[in-house]
Amino acid sequence: MTKYKPVIGLEIHAELNTKTKMFCDSANDPNEVRPNVNVCPICLAHPGTLPVINIEAVNKVIKTGLALGSNINNLSWFERKNYFYPDLPKGYQISQYEKPFCEGGVLKLSSGKEIKIRRIHLEEDTGRLIHETQNLKHETHERQGKISGSMFHASSFVDFNRAGVPWMELVTEPDLENGQEAREFGEELRLLFRYLNISDADMEKGQMRVEANVSLRAEGSDKFGTKVEIKNLNSFRSAERAINYEIVRQTKILESGEKIVQETRGWDENEERSFSQREKEESHDYRYFPEPDLPPVRLDQDQIDYIKSELPELPSKRRERFVWEYGITSKDSEVLTVQKELGDYFEKIVSELKEWLVASNAIKVSTGLTKLAANYLITEIQKLLSESKTSLADLKISAEDFAELIILINQGKISSSAAQTILAEMFKTGEDPHQILEDKNLSQLSDKSELIKLAEEVIAQNPQPAADYKKGKTESLKFLVGQLMRLTKGKANPQIGENVLKDLLGR
Asked: What is the DSSP string of 321-348?
């Protein structure tokens, strides 16, 4: 059996979050639900209208290229891409082909594998088609009889709100080998877009779409196989499954001695299979030529350097820094990187912890404190947000108060159960943790002399477990500690309480 190696390249589109559209001043508002509101004669392609380049959109594409290490072309221009589609008002799309703004670049996967970027260019989005089917009742008369039945009537509507929105397209080299790599690449790229604040990249709203080019070549051969494009994948899960399905489909065809047809295919999410849509167009089918109504775009180095100076810390750098600077695990760092707002809140808490430690004459923040803060954020806060169906933006707890709670836990002044009680009340009211601690009398009992008296009472009430522990049954100690916690209503310091019990039982 001949073995084949998958060769996969991606085309990823993202709507840029500019205030206005690409070539006119109509609003770019993805949340507008009323159809054909954000339109004007330019984006509706009325005769005699002229486009004007949105410089904000150009800058966002340049920023993306710089973040990915692309080469920025100092001279670039727009071209007409000719094709007919009902939601394309002009009958052509203003795009880029010969000289895109960005060429080259790389994005690294978690495995260390680098996926090379071929190009990043800018164009305008199309409108949106809405299809409705109505079941219409009808009656016919035939001779003396009366026949009742129904017929289906289909209507199509066009919403041009999205027509003309800045649409960035990123094309990779065919460096990917399976659906899992494609999914990781897409997720990391979406995260980068959000860090750069160039796109919300909400796939449910159609702000980011993925297309995959999949082919197979025989092991040991440098010759690429016939390429099949899978269009408009609206989730990374769909992209992963569609690519893996297509690899299996093409393998079966080649192993049966047949040939792959170069075509565009869609993806049926319900049946989890791809289906043929049309034969694949080549670039010459679009009859590209320079857009006569727009001048070439010339970028000087000062402008490029200024955009570069505005680049934020990128996700890959944040992951690494959180681990070495704060001593948290790679897993926790990943969560705090992917959820950027949570990571920002974490750093505010760490800043408050630093202030407290300076006041306490400590030299630096201990990793114990930062790990504790990360743990409570990722577990307890996430749980409270999920249960209340709210977001971090709704959180009433200030970074200062959260840091105070972490210090109380670290100092052993409250138990873990008391900490959860206090945190839940802070989440509900936004109140200071010290005030809640005082109001609810949740201070941890750490006084050894008092704990000795209580531990003696526990031993007296539970002679058999005490005797079992003396005989070497260590599990009995856990039972006795539990009884001590119960007696003190969870306020006893468990570690001190355990040591006191050990001393009294002579082990």
From this structure: HHHHHH---HHHHHHHHHSHHHHHHHHH
